[in-house]
Design a protein that fits this description.
Layout (H helix, E strand, L loop, with lengths): L13 H16 L1 H11 L11 H14 L4 H9 L11 H9 L5 H14 L23 H12 L12 H12 L6
Helix pairs in contact: 2-8, 3-4, 3-7, 4-8, 5-6, 6-7
Length: 183
């Protein structure tokens, strides 16, 4: 059997659900390659910047690596804007859900909140409150997210920066997203 016979989940058999579990395992194992493909698609997303969203993501990860960040943080830096294509007004939440099963809670929180923290650099130019992130000031990871944005994210729109290529980060993605998801 290579396909279930049921048309409603309530009618599935144990054998069918074992088949689906095996197929899901194989599908999850291919996640790193799908992430690489999704990153590659960022090369043709949102215009207007001096670099593509892919280059921005690569620069953010390059800066994180050069600053000595651990593998989970580097992976998060690389994927932090992955949601731009499908959730442009809520991209940080989508990216956080992608990384959540594979990284520690602090890293997920930083990815999830980076959009709010990034507004510090531009909201006041558009009539908004650049200090909206201050509502999170008492959070244990506030300073870490502020540093992520200051040192890596907001600085990574430079076409002359010596950016590492996606191929450099592919083994890291395979390492982080190739391990079993956290419970």
């Amino acid at each position: 059997m290579n396909r279930v016979g049921f048309r409603a989940m309530k009618d599935g058999t144990a054998e069918e659900y074992r088949l689906l579990a095996d197929l899901e395992h194989d599908y999850i194992s291919a996640l790193p390659q799908r992430l690489i493909g999704a990153l590659e698609r960022l090369s043709t997303s949102l215009d207007g910047y001096q670099v593509t969203r892919l280059t921005h993501s690569l620069q953010t990860a390059t800066r994180a690596e050069r600053d000595g960040a651990d593998e989970e943080m580097i992976a998060a830096a690389l994927l932090h804007d992955l949601g731009d294509d499908l959730a442009p007004t809520n991209h940080a939440a989508l990216a956080a859900e992608i990384v959540r099963p594979y990284v520690r809670p602090q890293v997920t929180w930083i990815v999830e909140q980076h959009g709010v923290f990034q507004s510090y650099y531009y909201a006041h130019h558009m009539g908004g409150d650049r200090n909206v992130r201050d509502r999170l000031r008492d959070h244990a990871w506030f300073a870490s997210c502020a540093a992520f944005c200051e040192n890596w994210d907001q600085a990574s729109f430079d076409p002359s920066y010596d950016t590492l290529p996606l191929a450099h980060f592919a083994p890291l993605l395979r390492q982080v997203f190739g391990r079993p998801p956290r419970g």
